[in-house]
């Protein structure tokens, strides 16, 4: 790997820190990692935990018009502030930025739990989303400064598995808390877990670890340029408006409605302004153009965003398929999704061992994309008569691919980029995943709704499509006559299979991203790596 000119111009302080760097002992690393896993679990859980709690929230606040904001406010703010946290992690010790992110997340969770009205709940979700923006990228960065490259894949694989488990288990945990405690318990749950995270990270992670740039001696104008506040002031609202357009388009408003057209026009104008600022700022910008041109960076981002999009489509719509086509309850559908969850956990461990050797990142990522592609392709053949062997086997294929992908892209980034670039590289990677998730779910919802309406109008024109859509997946028996239920069942199957084709397309593109990885690994040279990393590289190659 060629040494970047910018990396060669790293500050003397940064070079000295790298040269004297020593990884903490195993016991300290495990304690810090436990805190990271807990924080990642809570942050990811908040994406899906409200799915089963929203009816109880609506009963209390009588705010059906706000229901979409309960989830979107968290996702939108979390995505919008990803790159800003990348700048913070580049400039300040990772420990304190991460602790600040967790505390913001905890504050938002407390406000949500104590909410007395719908606007207060939405505000709390938005604040929690800002904190969540720094949690996942911070966790990945902390792993890079506490775990040698030879073992990093295993730790990152565990982090990825935790996220997937939290995504799948979210609705079940939310339902249990709502039934036996209160919907407020979905938010108060974060408080004790967050406190444990703060204690573990605060006590066992070294305070000065992770800063790659010195701010001492800079004027206020230089600080303004360093953090690219002008670019951030444009990027955050641009991301918010884009995600709003994606969430509303085709659902609340038609895609050609004045509202959606106006939102997309605003996004286009802000994007032009943002690009102009980034070209002027160069490496000081929110997004480094040099970094985006790096093959390891853009290929990993492409791979990660496509696998993430495919994964969330499969998780959301496979559970819906079980409930609507197989007539399973919410708890039964969770049990029926266990093959995917178990295979993800096992494959993440296998992938962690494989990616302990950086030269295996590209083959592992390619295999992951192929597994998900084959599994998603087979899921498109599901029907009401599909047996256990089919939907279990197809889940295992998809889960194996998702598990193998849990750490391969992240290890590839850390193995091929200078240490000073890691905070921003990780932020770009997590931002691409968040944006892809919002985009894939928006596309999936539009494909599902349009196909379901088309199927119902074709096969059961006497039924009210609006009544069926409002009934949802679990209350169809109350609005559909018994003689027409098989027809509706088949219509749901066709609509969900149509969404699986979107997951298949994402998975196929992920294979192309994996094939663009840097396949030949070369040992890092100073100042891109510490002596310890050089030693690790020598042992691996």
TrEMBL record:
Stretches assigned to the Major facilitator superfamily (MFS) profile domain: 32-522
Transmembrane feature ranges: 30-55, 67-85, 97-116, 122-147, 154-175, 187-208, 229-248, 260-277, 298-321, 333-353, 360-379, 391-413, 495-519
Regions annotated as coiled coil: none
CDD domains in the record: MFS_Azr1_MDR_like
Cited PROSITE patterns: MFS (PS50850)
Keyword Transmembrane helix: yes
Membrane topology: Multi-pass membrane protein
Listed InterPro entries: MFS, MFS_dom, MFS_trans_sf
Keyword Nucleus: no
GO molecular function, one term: transmembrane transporter activity
GO CC entries: plasma membrane
Pfam families documented for this protein: MFS_1 (PF07690)
Record keywords, A-Z: Membrane, Transmembrane, Transmembrane helix
Subcellular location: Membrane
PANTHER family, per database record: MAJOR FACILITATOR SUPERFAMILY, MFS EFFLUX TRANSPORTER INPD-RELATED
Protein name: MFS transporter like protein
UniProt organism field: Zymoseptoria brevis
């Amino acid at each position: 790997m060629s040494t970047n000119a910018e990396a060669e111009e790293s500050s003397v302080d940064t070079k000295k820190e790298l040269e004297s760097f020593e990884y903490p002992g195993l016991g300290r690393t495990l304690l810090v990692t436990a805190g990271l896993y807990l924080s990642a679990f809570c942050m990811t859980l908040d994406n899906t935990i409200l799915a089963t709690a929203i009816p109880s929230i609506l009963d209390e606040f009588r705010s059906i018009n706000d229901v979409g904001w309960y989830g979107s406010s968290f996702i939108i703010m979390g995505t919008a502030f990803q790159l800003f946290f990348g700048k913070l992690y580049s400039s300040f010790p990772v420990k304190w930025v991460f602790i600040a992110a967790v505390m913001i997340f905890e504050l938002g969770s407390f406000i949500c739990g104590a909410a007395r009205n719908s606007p207060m709940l939405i505000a709390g979700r938005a604040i929690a989303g800002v904190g969540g923006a720094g949690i996942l990228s911070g966790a990945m960065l902390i792993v890079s400064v506490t775990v040698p490259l030879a073992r990093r894949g295993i730790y990152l694989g565990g982090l990825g598995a935790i996220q997937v488990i939290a995504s799948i288990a979210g609705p079940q945990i939310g339902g249990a808390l709502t039934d036996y405690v209160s919907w407020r318990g979905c938010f108060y749950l974060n408080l004790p877990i967050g406190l444990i995270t703060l204690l573990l990270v605060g006590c066992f992670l070294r305070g000065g670890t992770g800063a790659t740039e010195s701010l001492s001696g800079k004027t206020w104008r230089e600080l303004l340029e360093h953090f690219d506040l002008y670019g951030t002031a444009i990027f955050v609202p641009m991301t918010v408006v884009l995600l709003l357009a994606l969430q509303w388009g085709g659902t609340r408003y038609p895609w050609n409605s004045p509202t959606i057209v106006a939102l997309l026009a605003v996004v286009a104008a802000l994007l032009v302004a943002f690009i102009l600022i980034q070209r002027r700022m160069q490496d000081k910008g929110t997004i480094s153009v040099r970094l985006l041109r790096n093959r390891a960076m853009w290929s990993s981002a492409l791979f990660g965003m496509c696998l993430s999009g495919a994964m969330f489509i499969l998780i959301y719509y496979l559970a819906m398929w079980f409930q609507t086509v197989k007539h399973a309850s919410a708890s039964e559908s969770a049990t029926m999704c266990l093959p995917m969850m178990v295979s993800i956990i096992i494959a993440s461990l296998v992938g962690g061992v494989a990616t302990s050797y950086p030269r295996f990142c590209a083959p592992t990522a390619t295999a992951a994309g192929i597994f998900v592609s084959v599994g998603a392709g087979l899921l498109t053949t599901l029907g009401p008569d599909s047996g256990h062997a089919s939907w279990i086997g197809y889940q295992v294929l998809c889960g194996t691919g998702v598990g193998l992908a849990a750490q391969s892209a992240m290890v590839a980034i850390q193995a091929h980029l200078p240490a000073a670039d890691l905070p921003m590289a990780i932020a770009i990677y997590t931002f691409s995943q968040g944006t892809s998730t919002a985009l894939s779910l928006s596309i999936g919802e539009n494909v599902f709704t349009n196909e379901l309406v088309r199927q119902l109008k074709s096969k059961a024109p006497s039924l009210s499509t609006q009544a069926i859509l409002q009934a949802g997946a679990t209350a169809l028996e109350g609005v559909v006559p018994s003689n027409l239920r098989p027809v509706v069942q088949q219509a749901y199957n066709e609509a969900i299979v149509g969404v699986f084709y979107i997951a298949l397309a994402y998975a196929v593109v992920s294979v192309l991203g994996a094939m663009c990885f840097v396949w030949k690994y070369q040992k890092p040279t100073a100042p891109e790596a510490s002596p310890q990393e050089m030693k690790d590289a020598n042992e691996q190659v």
